[in-house]
Automatic annotation (TrEMBL):
Family: In the C-terminal section; belongs to the flavoprotein pyridine nucleotide cytochrome reductase family.
Enzyme class: oxidoreductase
Species for this entry: Streptomyces violaceus (Streptomyces venezuelae)
Domain FAD-binding FR-type: 302-402
Catalysis: reaction(s): 2 nitric oxide + NADH + 2 O2 = 2 nitrate + NAD(+) + H(+); 2 nitric oxide + NADPH + 2 O2 = 2 nitrate + NADP(+) + H(+)
Protein name: nitric oxide dioxygenase
Keyword NADP (UniProt): yes
EC number(s) stated in the UniProt entry for this protein: 1.14.12.17
Names of the cofactor(s): FAD; heme b
Biased composition (Low complexity): 1-12, 94-136, 148-161
Record's keyword annotation contains Metal-binding: yes
Region (Disordered): 1-161
Lineage: Bacteria, Bacillati, Actinomycetota, Actinomycetes, Kitasatosporales
Pfam family, one: FAD_binding_6
Length: 533
């Protein structure tokens, strides 16, 4: 599925034929240099724009403390899925034990504490990079999230947290620059590429729709600096995911300097030393969480996988089911997604959900819909053939099954959003569960129900599974109304996958029928950001 939970608009542009590999032939050299050792990843101290240079603090051992920042990488797409918003914010969960292992992660909520205006972007000390006691597969596969983001309605049951002083200053700056967001974006990249031309190759050759994704991810993270549960998972996934771009820790300070430079220029009416200090503190903490996550991940998994296309099955003129064989084991969970790069558009990555549970033969399948101006989706649907080599980023997403409960599953998939729903059904079957699974398969026309035969075969094989097709042009009710018509759903966990509009209406419908927000799972960026605000 192109962009697990949003429409795929992957209209980034980049030069076509060259790049790091030739179609249909596996490359003999790596495209980007792998990040160095954790010790070599420490960036040098920098000063924010307009601030005097100051020596970084020196710890007791006499070594200089390195600085940090957020995304120094080409694109920030999580969600990236043919989605064009920032990198996906995974469905948040209570802070896992892994969060506590990183001082920077633990300090996200405390990053807003008032203090003197710092003059260097200095990260917290590196977390220990020693592997934990868990096995290799456990290290490489994100843990299942049992509690998705709490929603606005849920927040009413708990006292509202007062915004921290830094969060207030950060949001004031963002409100100031909102009317001139395009100018801020252009100026940010102009500063970055003029001052640090060595970073330009990390980005696509053309920056049409790509250009605002990095900045949006940074601003989203800064805006939610008080929301630790959402932010730490988000940033750790960003840090891991940005390894595939060739991003290294020393790239982060440059991004931070140019971010503050752009903000200070366009928020000049409200900008002062106190506001700059708040942004430096927030960015320093944000970047260090990402750096730590990348350093830990480097010990466990490659930055990317090569994968050969083994089958290409056109289902409609604009939808294809593509199966690939990765060059080494690729651990993931049913319901997750990955990022994909094709040989025809180097450095353009888009997210696609896995269309099956993990298979014994190691093959991976994706449902891809070609969309207007979708460079990656059109290449995969209309150009890719068996033998072609693509690259895969790490798995991400928290729309996974909790096998410790006996709750039923209410699964709602729209369009190619049926891909991860099918994977979830297979996952339940493979675990031997006989819990009730109700699938609503939404489509505009019967022509768009390209995988209905597969879903009906699964229904015939498993008496606990019910599949209902809801076709917009034939039904007297829309998909959310159909959900309300069945039920009750109070003993079910809900899973949503499809375009953003369907996610929004689906979440509202599920809440209306009594499903608590913490039992509604999806990977839609827009919904997650709203839920975290």
């Amino acid at each position: 599925m192109d962009a697990p939970t949003t429409t795929s608009a992957d209209n980034g542009t980049s030069g076509g034929g060259g790049g790091w590999f030739t179609p249909r032939k596996k490359p003999t050299t790596t495209p980007d240099s792998e990040p160095g050792t954790p010790e070599g990843r420490r960036p040098a101290a920098i000063r924010p724009v307009g601030r005097p240079t100051a020596a970084p603090e020196t710890p007791a051992d006499g070594t200089a403390v390195p600085p940090a920042s957020t995304t120094g990488s080409a694109s920030t797409g999580g969600p990236e899925q043919g989605r064009e918003p920032p990198e996906a914010i995974p469905t948040p969960a209570p802070l896992a034990a892994q969060h506590a292992s990183s001082p920077a992660a633990a300090s996200v909520g405390a990053a807003s504490s008032a203090g003197p205006a710092p003059t260097a972007l200095t990260p917290a000390p590196f977390a220990s990079t020693a592997p934990s006691a868990t096995g290799p597969d456990e290290l490489r596969v994100p843990a299942q999230r049992h509690t998705p983001a709490s929603a606005p309605g849920q927040a009413a049951s708990a006292p509202a947290r007062e915004a921290s002083p830094d969060a207030i200053l950060i949001r004031r700056a963002m409100a100031e620059v909102a009317p001139v967001a395009e100018k801020v974006t252009s100026y940010f990249y102009a500063l970055l590429f003029v001052r640090y031309p060595d970073l330009r190759p990390l980005f696509p050759a053309a920056m049409d729709t790509q250009r605002d994704r990095l900045l949006k991810a940074l601003l989203t993270a800064a805006e939610h600096i008080d929301n630790t549960d959402v932010l730490v998972d988000y940033l750790q996934n960003l840090g891991r995911g940005h390894r595939k771009y060739g991003t290294r820790a020393e790239h982060y300070p440059a991004v931070g300097e140019c971010l503050i430079g752009a903000l200070s220029k366009y928020a000049a009416e409200v900008w002062n030393e106190e506001m700059e200090a708040a942004w430096v503190r927030a960015y320093t903490t944000i970047s260090q969480v990402m750096i730590d996550a990348a350093a830990r991940d480097e010990l466990r998994a490659p930055a990317w996988w090569y994968a050969e296309v083994v089958t290409h099955d056109p289902r409609t003129p604009d939808v294809a089911v593509i199966t690939v064989r990765p060059d080494q084991p690729y651990p993931f969970l049913a319901g997750q997604y990955t990022s994909v790069e094709t040989p025809w558009w180097p450095r353009i990555w888009r997210h696609y959900s896995f269309a099956s549970a993990p298979r014994s033969d190691g093959l991976l399948s994706f449902h891809v819909k070609a969309v207007p101006a979708g460079w990656v989706s059109n290449a995969l649907v209309h150009r890719a053939r068996p033998g072609d080599i693509i690259r895969l980023g790490p798995p991400a997403g928290a729309m996974t099954v909790d096998h410790t409960t006996e709750s039923g599953l209410l699964c709602v998939g729209g369009g190619t959003g049926i891909a991860p729903i099918k994977a979830l059904v297979e996952d339940v079957a493979e675990h031997g569960d006989r819990r009730s699974v109700e699938v609503f398969y939404g489509a505009r026309t019967d022509h768009d129900l390209y995988d209905i035969d597969t879903m009906l075969r699964l229904q015939q094989s498993h008496p606990w599974l019910a599949v209902r097709a809801i076709i917009d042009q034939q039904a007297h009710q829309q998909l959310p109304d159909a959900i309300r018509a069945y039920g009750p759903w109070d003993e079910f966990d809900a899973y949503l996958s499809g375009p953003p509009g369907m996610i929004r209406s689906g979440v509202d419908a599920l809440r209306d029928v009594g499903i608590p927000s913490d039992r509604i799972r999806h990977d839609s960026v827009e919904e997650l950001v709203a839920a975290g605000s």
